[in-house]
Design brief:
The protein is an alpha/beta fold. The protein is built from eight helices and eleven strands. The protein has a five-stranded parallel β-sheet with strand order 2-1-3-4-5, sandwiched between helices. Strand 6 and strand 7 form a beta hairpin. Helix 6 packs across helix 8. The longest helix is centred in the middle third of the chain and has 15 residues.
Length: 229
């Protein structure tokens, strides 16, 4: 079972979550404010953080960015907002998953187990290398021709996913499910925008690709320059 940090200011919700997760074998600590949660996330090194957005001293989205800047701990955002655009922004900011209020203990436990499975180290920690592109999942750093790439967390996840499947066409549906953890729901725009940002950082365009090749009506393929496109 996991060590869970709950950052939540509502004492009723805090008590309910502590009881529900404790009954399922998790060790749970809590913090009622953003700053207390940030300190606990850094010093206590929990296995997973449950982060409420409506905190009294600081917006939870700011806490998300601050934690993500110093730690790769899995973060599940607890929110009352279920709009797709808001969820996408949270995931792009570094959240690993989300749960919408109200929620049950069984659902929360399942999401905790899911993010912990995804956080398990892969059998190999060697960087993925495709041509001059190197993507290291262990350090979450990527470089192109020896120069580091300044990527957002979601851009890194997208690049690593594609580089790990170099030469294979990956559909937008697959990217939304495996990188964004979202149902398809026709959200092509989300993938297109991030691919555009990623191309810019790789020094290419959709019209003149080097690594990222669009396969019309199918998806995208990452390939070594000069190889099969």
């Amino acid at each position: 079972m996991a060590t869970v940090l709950l950052v939540e200011d509502d004492p009723t919700i805090r008590t309910a979550v502590l009881r529900a997760l404790g009954e399922r074998g998790h060790t749970v600590t809590s913090a009622p404010t953003a700053m207390a949660g940030l300190q606990a996330a850094v010093t206590d090194r929990p296995d997973v953080v449950l982060l409420d957005l409506g905190l009294p001293d600081l917006d939870g989205r700011e806490v998300l960015r601050m934690v993500r800047a110093v730690s790769a701990v899995p973060i599940i955002v607890v929110t009352a907002r279920d709009a797709e655009a808001e969820i996408v922004r949270l995931l792009d900011a570094g959240a690993d998953d989300y749960v919408v209020k109200p929620f049950g203990g069984a659902q929360l436990d399942a999401r905790i187990r899911a993010v912990l499975r995804r956080a398990e180290p892969e059998e190999t920690t060697a960087p993925v290398v495709v041509g001059g592109l190197s993507v290291d999942a262990r350090t979450r750093q990527a470089s192109l021709d020896g120069a580091p790439l300044d990527l957002t967390p979601r851009e890194f996840d997208l690049l690593h996913y594609l580089a790990s499947r170099a030469g294979t066409v990956v559909s937008k549906r697959e990217l939304l499910a495996d990188v964004w953890k979202l149902p398809y729901a026709g959200a092509d725009k989300t993938v297109d925008v991030h691919l555009s940002w990623l191309r810019r950082k790789l020094g290419e365009t959709a019209q003149e690709p080097r690594y990222l090749h669009t396969v019309r009506r199918v998806g995208v393929r990452l390939a070594e320059p000069g190889g099969e496109a």
